[in-house]
Design brief:
Strand 3 and strand 4 form a beta hairpin. The chain is globular, with a radius of gyration of 13 Å. It is built from 3 helices and 5 strands, in the order βαβββαβα. The chain has one domain. By secondary structure, the protein is α/β, with parallel strands linked by helices. The longest helix has 15 residues.
């Protein structure tokens, strides 16, 4: 599971690198989940971002940007309970979530 403030279609170093890692993991047969926010400065074809979608087989779950302080930890907990998460990758200030999930669900990485 990848947790970050913004993700594709946002364009940036973190977004592009994470998207590429996700695509490669999916290609190797892994289930990949991205937990992110609805914040973006790029709306392709003026389309608003959805709260849940699959792009290239990657499951993306978005929460409202203004509620991220509450929603990201809760959604991370929900996803960790629902799916067997082996790896949590966080690019922003959400590191405490990874520590919590690692201890609670004995996630190896």
């Amino acid at each position: 599971m990848f947790i970050l403030n913004t993700f594709y279609p946002n364009i940036g170093g973190v977004e592009n690198a994470t998207f590429e890692i996700c695509k490669r993991l999916k290609k190797r047969g892994h289930n990949v989940y991205v937990l992110t926010t609805t914040k973006t400065n790029f709306y392709p074809n003026n389309k608003k971002l959805t709260y849940s979608e699959k792009i290239d087989g990657i499951q993306i779950v978005r929460v409202q940007y203004v509620l991220r302080i509450i929603d990201i930890p809760l959604r991370a907990l929900y996803l960790a309970k629902k799916f067997q998460i082996d790896y949590v990758f966080i690019t922003d200030f959400w590191g405490f979530i990874a520590i919590f999930l690692k201890k609670m669900f004995r996630i190896p990485f």
